[in-house]
Amino acid sequence: MTHSKQQRLRFGLAALAAAGLIYGLASGQAQAVWQKAVFICMECIGIG
User: What are the pLDDT digits (tens) for 25-45?
Assistant: First the structure.
């Protein structure tokens, strides 16, 4: 693969990742992930 094709592929994947992050934040998924992470941590330390 040539250097320019690699650059386009990297840029495309980065743009796709950014679009996914923006979509997740806009649809409120960040809050759901945060709540699950807190619940798992509470279970690990024996509080939840």
Answer: 899 888 888 899 888 888 888
**3-state DSSP percent of the chain in helix, strand and coil, to 5:** 85, 0, 15
Distance separating alpha carbons of residues 17 and 27, to the nearest angstrom: 15
Tens digits of per-residue pLDDT, 8-20? 999 999 999 999 9
Cα–Cα dist 41/5, whole Å: 42
What pLDDT score does 27 carry?
Answer: 93
Closest CA to 43 of 13, 35, 1, 29: 35
